[in-house]
Amino acid sequence: MQKKIKNLKEAAERIKTAVKNNEKIIIYGDSDCDGITSTVILQETIQNLPFDTAQGKGGKVDMVLFPNREDDGYGINARALKFLENKAPALFITLDLGISNVKEIEVLNEYGFEVIVVDHHQVLQSIPNAQIVVDPQQKDDTSEYKYLANVGLTFKLAEEILGREFSVNLKNSFLELTALATISDMVPQIGDNKMFIEEGLRSLKHTFRPGLRAFLDILGEGEVLSGEYYKVISALNAAESIDFKNESYDLLTSASPNRCMELAQDLISKTNYKQIKIKEITEEVERRIAQKKDELIIFEGDPAWRLVLAGPVASILYNKYQKPTFIFKKGDSESAGSVRSTKELNSVEAMKTCRDFLITYGGHPQASGFRIKNENLERFKNSLNEYFKNLT
After folding, report:
1. Do 125 and 96 touch, CB atoms closer than 8 A?
2. Which SUPFAM superfamilies does the UniProt entry name for this protein (predicted)?
3. SS percent in the chain: helix, strand, coil, step 5
């Protein structure tokens, strides 16, 4: 029998207590498909609790926030801390981020927040001092669920919170989101992930969610369901997070078919534009590395490149050249980027050896990110080359 994820039950009970007591609840989710769908699932789980509250039947999430990766970087950042300074007391729940925000969570504790971290990324040096941490990557988590995307983790949290109140229709609606985000996050399609994908995609053709129905109507239901669901995933990942608000979240939570059609069309247009820019950056990097064939890694950045495009570019280049790939946007004094590698050539472990001069770093072995002062870029590159050289 599969063991339960560490602290999952404790997190579920704490959330139910917050709803029963009409406590303020804030959800802070990552700005990609995995983080956005996780946020939608947890918010709707809380709204579907059978408790009588001040708002009537069901709970309420007082605030939903998403970081602007382009301007502020990944995770709980300085701008978010400034915004949150006067928002406590509240139950503050992170989704698809938080495990590397040790310092920031200490600040939230000082503000008077009670923090629950729900994340699936690798633990770095230490676990944040949150009230509850749910992350299968913790060393003492023996659940064997380390392969889950955050959305799968959140689905299991929803199961724990709702119990017998988890209706078939709500479960299918959540499975649709879980399938798309599990595929998007490129986690292994094994175990529960395989089930999420099969059942979620099967349910997608009957979806009651206006936001997903809009994609099926625009792209063509037959085309999406025959394998072009990647177009839906790309559109959801094309959203911008501005002032802590996110377009894909708005789309997935809107009840208005007309509004959903507008948002879906806008996201599809943004996807098409992104693909053009990704192609341009990829070709530019290939021109640069043509004279660096002997180097063990791809390490390139530019002030003109958008940070949100670094991940897709790194994926394309890694798949083609099979070298650990570091693509970054170079700012005035700092640079931030995305990394793609293999599980064996673990990018997070590689960056751990450089932690003394990195501002932040973290993620998965195969897909991660970093922020660094420009003065340390050459040192970073040399240290990475040395690390991977010692592995070969």
Report:
1. no
2. DHH phosphoesterases
3. 50, 15, 30
11 CB-contact burial (10 Å; exposed 0-12 / middle 13-18 / buried 19+) = buried
Angle at the Cα of 132 (from 126 to 134), degrees rounded to 5?
75
List the helix and strand counts (H, then E) for the chain: 16, 14
At 278-295, the pLDDT tens digits run 999 999 999 999 988 888
270: left (phi over 0), alpha (psi -120 to 50) or beta: alpha
For residue 239, give Cα distances in angstroms to 112, 268, 308.
31, 10, 10
Q: Which residue has the higher pLDDT, 52 or 188?
A: 188
Measured between alpha carbons, how far is 97 from 28 in angstroms, rounded to an integer? 8
User: Tokens 């029963």 sit at which residue?
Assistant: 20
Residue range 194-251, pLDDT digits in tens: 999 999 999 998 999 999 999 999 998 877 777 778 999 999 999 988 899 999 999 9
Three-state secondary structure call for residue 314: helix
Give the residue ranges of DSSP H helices in 73-167. Answer: 78-84, 102-111, 150-162
**pTM summary value:** 0.91
Name which of 57, 54, 48, 56 is nearest 21 in CA terms: 54
Dist. CA 149–CA 145, nearest whole Å: 9
Which residues contact residue 59 at a Cβ distance below 8 angstroms, ignoring those fewer than 6 apart? 18, 19, 25, 46, 47, 49, 51, 53
